[in-house]
Amino acid sequence: MKSHLGMRPIHHKTDTNSEAHIYITVIAYHFVIATIKKLRSKGINYNWNSIREALVSHRRVTTTFTTKDDRVINIRQNGEPNKKQTGIYAALKLKAEKGLKHDGCRSWGKYKNQLVQNLD
């Protein structure tokens, strides 16, 4: 089971910690199997390592700004998924968001134009 997840043995000092670790591992294993099964039903025959390798390069970067009035604004830039990543997302019915996203700060409009100008 752990070989599919790419995990190594972890030793715990208490039975409670060991039980929690086993529980999380079983949940992760079910997730892996469900993901592989869903992809195969869509004609994508990757193993878990191939899926991980395909998705590892898709990044989301968060930049945090503090305004003069001490408000914090988080800007998230999503990377553009490649063809393989797009196929995996589509088969799993996941939406790969593109472009800039903000954290819902009410004053976003005030800073957006200034930020976009600085990025160009």
Structure description:
The protein is built from 5 helices and 3 strands; from the N terminus they run H-H-H-E-E-H-E-H. It has a 3-stranded antiparallel β-sheet, with no helix packed on it. Helix content is 50%, strand content 15%. It is an alpha+beta fold and 120 residues long. It is flat, with a radius of gyration of 20 Å. It has a domain at 1-56. The protein has helices spanning 2-5, 15-41, 48-55, 83-91, 108-119, and strands spanning 60-66, 72-78, 99-102. The longest helix is centred in the first third of the chain and has 27 residues, at 15-41.
List strands and helices in order, with pairings:
Blueprint: H1 2-5, H2 15-41, H3 48-55, E1 60-66, E2 72-78, H4 83-91, E3 99-102, H5 108-119
Antiparallel strand pairs: 1-2, 2-3
List keywords for this structure.
120 residues, alpha+beta, 3-stranded antiparallel sheet, 5 helices, 3 strands, 15% strand, flat
- Termini, distance in Å? 48 Å
Helix content: 40-55%
SS elements, strand count: 3
Compute the CA-based radius of gyration. 20 Å
Unreliable spans: none
How would you spell out the order of helices and strands? HHHEEHEH
Give the mean pLDDT: 80
Short description:
The protein has 120 residues and is an alpha+beta fold.
